[in-house]
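Q: what sequence does this backbone want?
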């Protein structure tokens, strides 16, 4: 009886050893594949694998191979195969099975719930098998492009435990899968510069796994910089720091995460609490689970730890210029603003909404960001006066994390750089200056130069736009921000000033000069005085269009010269009348002949001088 009991107990113990469950939770980054060894499988074992999407737009894919497949070859072949296959006009779901069957003993894409993956594989011979974890390609309907999917996944692996595929199970403590690769052991090296204008730099970090240890080493490359470093979490709480007193030219820290680290940041400062900022260039070596980093050595490997700034694609179309107020030095425009960026944090799986895009208004989008603890590249129009009136807005978010923002707006913009010295032949520059709120550590502007910036019918009759160009620069206010500048170069339509001012002015001067052919000096004086009053009216008419300037414009100078010549004509005629009254008629006639021909020469010479001075 004892022998029978022992035999039964041994069988039960052996059976319990056969039922194994392991649960692995990891982040699959964009463009990554994860590989696991399955080293302890025996002939006759059945392995059950279920891969669930936890976050992101991940469309799980799993496959099993044998004998350490050359995974780099797999990825290269897969990358080359897809575009070639797509040339046949087939869909991804039609071309992938043939490819996967060549590489995997068993695989699955959508065998689980919704887009989750699950598979069953019976081991035919003892050996080391490999499990490949990836994100399947997904098609974006708006432009028929394919993109990788990514996000956090939960991998449940069971040996001889079919419940893995149908219900929630608990891990048995067995180690079934051993990760192959370096995403837990990463090293990254970058450089930066501290200046008096930019006394600290904040580096946002990618998600860090629970239990990972972060190692950071910072050293000065040039200058007299004494770098201080701080590690902060999502709540801006200080987790670790070094060299805050600024005594050394290098700093180091290490920190072990008790939970998954999202939205952490590393800050490098140059002021060290002192009045002046020590400038210089520094080098950062940062790694996870690699103590060697603290020696300042380590080969770069694995995915980046420091998050790259997100490129924000900005396109601006000025559709109408409704008003240019020269006295107030501003102008009002109606236009379209288009902003696009790709942020993995916005990615989602279409199964979650049964849609291929999500549409929001500005208010709805802000609420969505608040509820999901996300960040968006908000902007400020630097030369805006008053409020910007948004006529229509539309925001669309796509599964790959691309966000498309479009608004039609009306806004009054300041134009403090107006220079009226050459008025009315003055070329002027109009600017649209857009500044991103968050510093360049998070967002940088990339202009969409293919998008037309100026509409074909602006509705502005006085001005002719002859050129425009886009410039992307930065502004520094302790932090450095990315700025988009659209410069519009315009000239006035000169016909108005030619026919309404210059030609009438020329005719008036000719009439003024024509008085010298009159023999009656009294009539000459009357006509000249009347012409003088006309110039005064001209001056008031033109002056109301411009601000009260602290300098003379070309038009002012022309009017003043004409005013001066006409006043001189009045004085000359008064002088001639005086000579006539004093019976010096012969002297008056002699001088009159010289003055008659001198006046036009004086006018032409004065105009030539003004052109030389102003142009």
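A:
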């Amino acid at each position: 009886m004892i022998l029978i009991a022992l035999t039964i107990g041994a069988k039960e113990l052996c059976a319990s050893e056969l039922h194994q469950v392991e649960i692995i939770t990891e982040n699959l980054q964009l463009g990554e594949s994860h590989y696991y060894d399955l080293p302890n499988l025996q002939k006759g074992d059945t392995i059950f694998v279920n891969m669930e999407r936890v976050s992101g737009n991940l469309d799980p894919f799993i496959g099993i191979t044998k004998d350490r497949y050359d995974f780099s070859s797999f990825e290269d072949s897969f990358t080359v195969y897809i575009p070639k296959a797509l040339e046949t006009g087939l869909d991804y779901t039609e071309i992938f099975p043939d490819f996967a069957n060549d590489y995997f003993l068993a695989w699955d894409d959508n065998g689980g719930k919704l887009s989750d993956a699950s598979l069953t594989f019976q081991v035919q011979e003892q050996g080391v098998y490999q499990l490949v974890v990836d994100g399947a390609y997904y098609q974006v309907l708006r432009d028929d492009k394919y993109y990788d999917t990514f996000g956090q996944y939960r991998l449940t692996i069971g040996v001889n435990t079919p419940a893995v595929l149908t219900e929630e199970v608990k891990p048995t403590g067995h180690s079934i899968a051993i990760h192959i690769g370096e995403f837990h052991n990463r090293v990254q090296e970058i450089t930066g510069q501290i200046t008096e204008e930019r006394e600290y730099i904040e580096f946002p970090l990618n998600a860090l796994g629970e239990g990972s240890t972060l190692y950071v080493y910072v050293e000065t490359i040039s200058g007299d910089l004494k770098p201080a470093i701080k590690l902060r979490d999502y709540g801006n709480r200080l987790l670790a720091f070094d060299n805050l007193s600024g005594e050394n030219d290098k700093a180091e820290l290490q920190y072990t995460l008790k939970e998954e680290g999202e939205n952490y940041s590393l800050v490098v400062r140059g002021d060290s609490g002192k009045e002046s900022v020590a400038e210089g260039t520094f080098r950062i070596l940062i790694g996870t689970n690699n103590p060697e980093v603290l020696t300042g050595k380590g080969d770069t490997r694995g995915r980046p730890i420091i998050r790259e700034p997100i490129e924000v694609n900005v396109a601006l179309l000025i559709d109408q210029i409704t008003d240019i107020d020269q006295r107030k030095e501003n102008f009002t425009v109606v236009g379209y603003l288009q902003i696009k960026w790709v942020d993995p944090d916005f990615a989602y799986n279409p199964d979650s909404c049964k849609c291929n895009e999500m549409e929001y208004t500005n208010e709805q989008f802000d609420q969505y960001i608040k509820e999901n603890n996300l960040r968006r590249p908000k902007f400020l129009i630097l030369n805006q006066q008053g409020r910007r009136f948004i006529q229509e807005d539309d925001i669309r978010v796509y599964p790959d994390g691309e966000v498309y923002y479009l608004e039609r707006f009306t806004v009054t913009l300041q134009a403090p750089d107006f220079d009226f010295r050459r008025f009315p032949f003055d070329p002027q520059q109009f600017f649209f200056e857009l500044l991103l709120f968050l510093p360049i550590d998070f967002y940088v502007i990339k202009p969409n130069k293919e998008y037309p910036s100026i509409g074909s019918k602006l509705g502005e009759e006085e001005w002719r736009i002859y050129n425009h160009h886009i410039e992307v620069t930065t502004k520094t206010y302790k932090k450095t921000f990315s700025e988009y500048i659209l410069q519009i170069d315009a000239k006035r339509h000169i016909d108005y000033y030619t026919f309404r001012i210059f030609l009438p002015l020329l005719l008036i001067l000719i009439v003024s000069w024509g008085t010298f052919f009159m023999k009656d000096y009294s009539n000459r004086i009357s006509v000249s005085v009347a012409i003088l009053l006309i110039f005064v009216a001209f001056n008031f008419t033109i002056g109301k269009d411009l601000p009260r300037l602290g300098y003379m414009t070309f038009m002012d100078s022309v009017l003043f010269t004409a005013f001066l010549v006409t006043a001189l004509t009045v004085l000359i005629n008064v002088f001639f009348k005086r000579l006539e009254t004093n019976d010096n008629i012969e002297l008056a006639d002699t001088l009159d002949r010289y003055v008659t021909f001198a006046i036009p020469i004086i006018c032409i010479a004065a105009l030539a001088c003004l052109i030389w001075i102003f142009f």
